[in-house]
Specification:
- Pfam families: TrmO_C, TrmO_N.
- Helix content is about 15%, strand content about 30%.
- It has about 240 residues and is an alpha+beta fold.
- It folds into 2 domains: about 130 residues, Elongation Factor Tu (Ef-tu), domain 3 (Beta Barrel); about 70 residues, YaeB-like fold (2-Layer Sandwich).
- The chain is globular, with a radius of gyration of 19 Å.
């Protein structure tokens, strides 16, 4: 008997939640793996918070993380969207894009598995190369199989090449602030900032407006930067976690 799509429903429960360096949507890379210094913890929850559930997973270098776009879910979706790769002017079907605004707000990212840990009853996976917002609910985890998941002859439609990289500069003050934060936290802060800004995180509509400066929130800091003739210049790092 065919399923009535108008009444069929499926309920899923998160298997865990992301604790990420990305504290807001603005600035997150549009694809995983573009910022290899970006780190996160995937903290397992409920019945999944046990080492038995991840037994053997540590033998894999990368994993698939399926998650909910909780940061944009309330905004709904449309059948067509304007991809940044097309300058934000041309519309294509939502299923031809990786837009966060989807009929079912599900995302899928392949990330590097740095390790599996347990402390005080909490099991978590240490991840890198992530594109996940802090607090993201994760609904499934699967091992990445390069012999099955990598298709060398695949084509990429309107996004055939990686994004263009832009020069990223630092003022002396910003470099010193960066050095101090790295020393205190151990985070590869300067490298992460360079990886994010080099891809130009601005949406297409902001590129068409005249603005003096921008801000990107990473961990407990607000990274202040501006567009110059030489590239993107970081001029201040404001601590928010003092």
């Amino acid at each position: 008997m065919p399923v009535d799509a108008s009444t069929a429903a499926l309920t899923v429960q998160p298997v865990g939640f992301i604790r990420s360096c990305y504290r807001e949507k603005f600035g997150i890379p549009r694809q995983p793996g573009l910022a290899t210094s970006a780190r996160a913890r995937l903290e397992l929850s409920g019945a999944c918070n046990c080492l038995e559930a991840v037994n053997g997973l540590g033998d894999f270098s990368h994993i698939w993380v399926q998650f909910l776009f909780h940061g944009t879910q309330a905004e709904g979706w449309r059948p067509t969207v304007r991809p940044p790769r097309l300058g934000g002017d041309k519309r294509v079907g939502v299923f031809a894009t990786r837009s966060t605004h989807r009929p079912n707000p599900l995302g899928l990212s392949v990330v590097k598995l740095e390790g599996i840990h347990q402390d005080n009853g909490q099991v978590w996976l240490e991840l890198s190369g992530i594109d996940l917002l802090d607090g993201t609910p994760v609904v499934d985890i699967k091992p990445y199989l390069p012999w099955a998941d990598s298709v060398t002859e695949a084509t990429s439609g309107f996004a055939p090449e990686p994004p263009e990289n832009h020069p990223v500069l630092f003022t002396d003050e910003a470099l010193e602030q960066c050095r101090q934060y790295q020393q205190q936290t151990g985070h590869p802060f300067q490298q992460l900032i360079m990886e994010l800004l080099s891809q130009d995180p601005r949406p297409a509509y902001l590129k068409k407006r005249s603005r003096s400066d921008y801000g990107v929130r990473l961990w407990g800091c607000n990274i202040r930067w501006r567009v110059t003739e030489k590239g993107f210049e970081v001029f201040s790092i404001e601590r928010e976690d003092r």
